[in-house]
Design brief:
heterodimer, A: 306 residues, alpha/beta, Rossmann fold, six-stranded mixed beta sheet, 45% helix, B: 62 residues, mainly beta, five-stranded mixed beta sheet, 7 strands, 11% helix, 42% strand
C-alpha cells in the first residue's frame, strides 16, 4: 500500500476512510482531524486555557502532544489513585506522564495524589464503602470530582479527556442496550458547564479510532503505559468494544457511522420528546462543587465515613 | 519469524502477509498495529522468516 499523498510505503491503512498514509504524512493528518473536531464542536478557542486529564496511556498523552502542536495553552493533570496491581500500575503511569512533561518545556503536569491528599487509596475507599471488589465506580467518582476541582482551581476554561471514537461508540452502545435515555441526551463531544461549579468537558478525539491514536503515539515516539488498569479485565466497556470491532471488521466505518449519525439524529430531534428535568443543584458544604444532595456531595461523603 | 502479542510468542518458518499472520493467530486487524523490525506495516506487507514482529493491542478499556 502506498501513501495517498506522496506514494511512499504506507504505515497505516484506514479502511474506514479508504486512506493509507506514510510515516511522514500520517501525524499531520491526525493533527488536522483533531483541529477539525475542536472547531466543528466548538470545544474551545486559542484564548482559553485547557487542562488535559492524563492517565499515562496512549490517548491522553497523544492528546496532550497534539494540542501542544496545535498551539493551544494546555497543561496536564494526573491523578495518582494508589493502584499497584502487582506491577506498580499507578507509579508506572505517573512516570510516563512525568516523562512527557519533562520532554515538553512550556507545559506542566499537575499531580493529585489521592493517598497523600485524602489519606486512602481508591482501593481502600472502595473496600470500605462497597461490597464489590472492583473499585471502578468509586474510581470514576473520585476522578470526575478531582478533574473538575483542578480545572476550576487552576482557572482552566475547559477540561479535555482522551476519549476516542471506540470509547464513545462503546459507551453509546451500552446506553442504547439499556435505553439509558438520560445518558443518551447528554453523551457527546462536549459537556457544557451548564451550572456554576462545573468545568466544560470536551473530547477532541471523539472521531478518531483508537487504532489511529495508537499509531500516532508509536510514530511520534510517545512513551505510554501499555498495561491496562488491573481492574479493567472483564469490564463491560471492553466487551462492547470487542463487539463493535467485530462489526467494524465486516463493515468498515461502522463505529463512525453509529456515533456520528447518533449525534446528527439527536440534533435533528431524536430524544426531543424526552423531558429534561434536571434536579436542583446546591453547593457541597465541604468542597463547594455542585451536588443534588442536601449537605455533602457524594465525593465528600466518601471521606466523611472514614 | 518471531511474533509477540501481549504475553504470547509464536515462531513461524514460512512467509506470510500481515493479514495471513493475523488470521492465523485469530486477531482482528482493527484491534492491533503490527510492527516489523521496528517499523509499522500495513496488512499487505510480506513478512519473512527472519523478521521480528511485535503486535500491539490498541483497544483499551475499563
Amino acid at each position: 500500500m502506498r501513501c495517498r499523498i506522496c506514494g511512499a510505503p504506507a504505515v497505516i491503512n484506514m479502511r474506514q476512510h479508504k486512506l493509507s498514509l506514510c510515516a511522514e504524512h500520517y501525524p499531520p493528518w491526525l493533527i488536522r482531524q483533531t483541529a477539525r473536531a475542536i472547531h466543528k464542536y466548538r470545544m474551545f478557542t486559542a484564548e482559553e486555557r485547557v487542562l488535559v486529564a492524563v492517565s499515562g496511556g496512549k490517548d491522553s498523552l497523544t492528546l496532550w502532544d497534539v494540542l501542544l502542536k496545535l498551539g493551544y495553552q494546555v497543561d496536564g493533570m494526573y491523578i495518582d489513585l494508589g493502584i499497584d496491581g502487582g506491577f506498580g500500575y499507578s507509579a508506572q503511569s505517573k512516570a510516563k506522564a512525568s516523562a512527557f512533561e519533562a520532554a515538553h518545556p512550556g507545559t506542566r503536569l499537575l499531580v493529585v495524589d489521592i493517598v497523600a491528599t485524602y489519606g486512602e487509596s481508591v482501593l481502600d475507599v472502595a473496600a470500605r464503602v462497597q461490597k464489590e471488589l472492583r473499585p471502578c465506580a468509586i474510581c470514576g467518582l473520585i476522578k470526575r470530582h478531582e478533574m473538575n476541582r483542578m480545572a476550576l482551581e487552576g482557572g482552566y476554561s475547559v477540561l479535555a479527556t482522551g476519549h476516542n471514537l471506540d470509547d464513545e461508540a462503546a459507551s453509546l452502545f451500552g446506553n442504547v442496550l439499556h435505553w439509558q435515555v438520560g445518558y443518551l441526551r447528554r453523551q457527546g463531544p462536549v459537556l457544557p458547564a451548564d451550572a456554576e461549579g462545573f468545568a466544560r468537558k470536551v473530547k477532541p478525539f471523539c472521531r478518531l479510532y483508537e487504532r489511529e491514536t495508537a499509531a500516532y503515539a508509536l510514530l511520534e515516539g510517545i512513551d505510554y503505559i501499555y498495561e491496562e488498569c488491573p481492574f479493567a479485565t472483564g469490564a463491560t466497556s471492553i466487551q462492547h468494544k470487542e463487539t463493535l470491532t467485530q462489526m467494524e471488521h465486516k463493515t468498515p466505518g461502522t463505529k463512525m457511522h453509529f456515533y456520528v449519525n447518533f449525534l446528527r439524529a439527536r440534533e435533528e430531534g431524536l430524544l426531543s420528546n424526552v423531558e429534561d428535568d434536571p434536579p436542583a443543584l446546591r453547593s457541597c458544604e465541604r468542597c463547594g462543587q455542585p451536588t443534588t444532595s442536601e449537605r455533602l456531595c457524594r465525593f465528600c461523603r466518601l471521606w466523611a465515613r472514614a | 519469524m518471531q511474533v509477540t502479542y501481549r504475553d504470547k510468542v509464536w515462531t513461524f518458518d514460512e512467509t506470510l502477509t500481515v493479514s495471513q499472520l493475523l488470521r492465523r493467530i485469530k486477531v482482528l486487524p482493527e484491534s492491533v498495529l503490527v510492527i516489523r523490525n521496528g517499523t509499522l506495516v500495513t496488512e499487505d506487507q510480506q513478512l519473512s522468516s527472519a523478521d521480528e514482529i511485535r503486535i500491539v493491542a490498541v483497544i483499551s478499556g475499563g
